[in-house]
Design goal:
The protein is an alpha/beta fold. It has one domain: TIM Barrel. It has an 8-stranded parallel β-barrel, surrounded by 6 helices. β3, α5 and β4 form a beta-alpha-beta unit. The termini are close together.
Length: 286
């Protein structure tokens, strides 16, 4: 297994500042300039950055894609992720428009992957329908030169590794796989041992954070307002990392800290403490 720390991606929420997740596009988009965020990410040690669709639309008012790509290259940001795709299981015009916008950005910025979610209302869908839709989503992403990372979530219709794997393996797209976030696995009660079920080619991306021992409020409140810096909660982050590495994951790690406390931190502090705490977990793998 790898002995040196990998690259890390500052996911959107980690350095977005004072935003309101799942609110209006204006409140969800970062008030911090794009270049300023990229500079802070580089100073902290990150080698990648994430953008939310609402934020991307806001950034595009100030920067064209060529300028954005130049800023990323000038600051050694080699990994770009874009989010968040929902509604792809149904004929949703809004979801189609988001997909078009993210694919355009992915092609222009050389994005590593697009993050996709399951049915966020937890509605049941036939497996063959999900497989067909996911295969089509991956083909659309392939045309844009990127991949799809499907995130399993405890309140959705894909809560477990078995459920998520059935979709991505059924679709069997070369650019499609699972996104495993330690928070979502822990809150769904998924043992880290289940990660061994995932063939490495379907292990598309991994995200790190931490959590309290028990859910605070609803699951949604807990995920949006109570995530912890790696090593400051009750989750065994090194055990999770060992499990994904044993399954063959060799890519960068997203650091996704979403909390009321973290949103109050100054940008440089938010970037530095999120990076340092995530990187520190790799010293505990032996």
């Amino acid at each position: 297994m790898p002995t040196s720390p990998p690259d890390f991606i500052a996911t959107y929420w980690t350095i977005a500042g004072k935003v309101l997740p799942l609110s209006s596009p204006e409140q969800e988009a970062s008030p911090i300039d794009f270049r300023t965020r990229v500079e802070a990410a580089q100073r902290a040690g990150y080698r990648g950055i994430g953008l939310m669709h609402s934020d991307l639309m806001n950034v595009r008012r100030s920067y064209d894609f060529a300028t954005m790509r130049a800023i990323l290259a000038d600051h050694d940001m080699v990994h770009v992720e874009l989010e968040f795709l929902v509604g792809w299981l149904e004929d949703d015009p809004g979801a189609a428009a988001v997909l078009d916008a993210l694919c355009e950005a992915a092609a222009a910025l050389g994005a590593r992957h697009l993050k996709a979610g399951p049915d966020m209302q937890g509605r049941s869908w036939p497996l063959d329908h999900m497989v067909t839709r996911f295969r089509a989503l991956c083909e659309r992403a392939r045309q844009a030169g990127t991949a799809i990372a499907l995130e399993i979530m405890p309140w959705s219709n894909l809560r477990t590794i078995d459920e998520g794997l059935a979709v991505v393996a059924g679709a069997d797209a070369s650019n499609g796989g699972l996104l495993l976030d330690i928070w979502h696995l822990a809150r769904a009660g998924v043992p880290y041992g289940d990660i061994a079920k995932v063939p490495s080619r379907y292990l598309r991306h991994v995200e790190l954070d931490d959590a309290d021992a028990e859910v605070v409020g609803t699951l949604l409140e807990d995920t949006l307002d109570r995530r912890r810096l790696c090593g400051s909660g009750a989750l065994d982050v090194p055990a999770f990392i060992r499990a994904v590495q044993a399954a063959g994951y060799r890519g960068p790690y997203g650091v996704e800290i979403i909390s009321l406390e973290h949103r109050q931190r100054a940008l440089d502090e938010a970037a530095r403490v999120s990076f340092d705490s995530a990187r520190a977990q790799f010293a505990h793998l032996d």
